[in-house]
UniProtKB/TrEMBL annotation:
This is Ribosomal-protein-alanine N-acetyltransferase. InterPro entries: Acyl_CoA_acyltransferase (IPR016181), GNAT_dom (IPR000182), N-acetyltransferase (IPR051531). One of its GO terms (cellular component) is cytoplasm. Signal peptide: none annotated. Keywords: Acyltransferase, Transferase. Residues 38-200 form the N-acetyltransferase domain. It comes from Nesterenkonia sandarakina. Belongs to the acetyltransferase family. RimJ subfamily. PANTHER family: [RIBOSOMAL PROTEIN US5]-ALANINE N-ACETYLTRANSFERASE, GNAT FAMILY, PUTATIVE (AFU_ORTHOLOGUE AFUA_3G00765)-RELATED-RELATED. GO terms for molecular function: protein-N-terminal-alanine acetyltransferase activity.
Length: 218
């Protein structure tokens, strides 16, 4: 039985938008991304460690080629089953080549009477503060609402993660409350602030909202 009945189940799909700083694109995660992905993760080890998902059985995981390949295969199968959308964030500054700068994953996608999902993301430290993450999230949310016919999208953020809190606040996500010991992160069960949007709240979409925010900054 198909869990979700949105208009467009095609995968892969690559939403993209041009911004004043450069082109932001969500490209499907593939096995061919292994070397770029692993290099970026190594470069950002300290930056990402406080926010990395773990499990009680493996509270201090290490990135490895085998773990990347397993992740890529699992997420690709989930994308084909319409339960997850695994994207990498690519950024192309004006006059330069595209570069891998982060990851954004949607899922699980729940259909039926709920039509809801959650998303998570991370960005290379060297590209933080350029408006890339808000636009990447905006692209994903617009795709989920306008192409996949979802009704609700949720983002859970640790209270200590100031950078991620700025992303959801900039995009107008509505805070719904604190979830105690919600996810296993960096070796322990961590509280998270829960933010959400429904289709009725986004008007013409988050990309348009994000562009308006960018144009309003000197």
């Amino acid at each position: 039985m198909r869990l979700f009945s949105g208009r467009n189940h095609a995968w892969p799909v690559s939403p993209a938008v041009q911004t004043p700083a450069g082109r932001v694109e969500l490209r499907p995660l593939t096995l061919q991304d292994e070397h770029r992905f692993m290099a970026l993760r190594v470069l950002n080890t300290q930056w990402l460690q406080p926010w990395d998902a773990t499990t009680p059985e493996d509270p201090d995981p290490r990135d490895s080629a085998s773990s990347f390949r397993q992740m890529a295969r699992n997420l690709t199968r989930s994308a084909q089953a319409v339960t997850h959308l695994p994207w990498l964030i690519w950024f192309t500054p004006a006059g330069e080549a595209a570069r891998l700068v982060g990851q954004l994953t949607v899922g699980p996608i729940i259909g039926g009477s709920a039509r809801t999902t959650s998303l998570g993301y991370w960005l290379d430290e060297g590209h933080a503060g350029q408006g890339i993450t808000p636009m990447a999230v905006a692209l994903a949310v617009d795709h989920l609402f306008f192409e996949r016919s979802l009704h609700r999208v949720e983002v859970a953020v640790r209270p200590e993660n100031a950078a991620s809190l700025r992303v959801v606040e900039k995009l107008g996500f509505r805070e719904e409350g604190l979830r105690l010991r919600f996810l296993h992160i960096h070796g322990a069960w961590r509280d998270h602030r829960c933010f959400a949007l429904t289709r009725e709240e986004i008007g013409e979409g988050l990309v348009a909202r994000c562009r308006g925010s960018q144009s309003g900054v000197g």
